[in-house]
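Hi C.,

You asked whether I'd gotten around to modeling the 289-residue construct. I have! Everything is below, sequence then structure, no commentary in between.
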Amino acid sequence: MKSRNQSPTPLLRNIASVLVFAFIFAVASCSDDDDSGPSARIKLASSPTLGDYLTDADGNALYFFSNDVAGQNTCTGGCATVWPIFFEASLTADVLGEGLSLDDFGSVTSAAGEQTTYKGWPLYYYAPGGVRETPNQTTGEAVGGIWFVAKTDYTIMLGHTQLIGLDGKKYKGDYTEGEAAVVYFTDADGRTVYSFNFDKKNDNNYTTGDGAHDAVWPIYGDAMASVPSTLDKTLFGTITVMGNTQLTYKGWPLYYFGNDAKRGDNKGVSVPTPGVWPVGIKDATEAPQ
């Protein structure tokens, strides 16, 4: 008769060894995945007042500069000291946090070197007095009325540059000829947004439904999401035009100009004469009834 206390058979010992090894390997594998997976180097943080905005890996806020509406860095000299550029060299989907798409990112070459862009806007840090903000700070928001946290969902952004009409002439904010930068509405991608002086409150008097005609001044119809903190979101609304949604501001229906071929163009200001199609601005008067 065999003893009850005899050692396990070789087969049982082998099975136990395999199970122990498998368990150790699984634990090690999980640990490796946690430690070696690439962490997000561009991600979203949330502010109770500003909503979601872009940060670097450490949670430092990233910013847009309204002067960069054409997609190039215009922050040089002393400006570059206060607003250092942000650059992510390994720009792949793996380094982006949840809610971000690689298609929205790119890069430009600035005086300070390569710089990452988001939806065509170069990205910056804020470093007042040469000291960079700490994580979760957004003290650079609305500085000068032209610096704003980088967000994914701006329906309206602000450009700040010279108005140059289709006639090639430079215009000031009152649509007389001259040199002066103007702060005006753009979409999220830096495309200029206009109103039409012959419209009435919430009443589009341009669009007819004729494709060729309407393509000259297409309606701006994005759904309202975020605006820069210097603007009052409640002053924006929508109307329905030919079955399509059009955004309004203070009752003025908003449009694009078909001949603005690239971001930062504002050629519509001289068509057919200066001021008939003004750029959208914060201080626009209420549209008439």
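If it helps when you're writing up: The two ends are 108 Å apart (CA to CA).

Thanks,
B.
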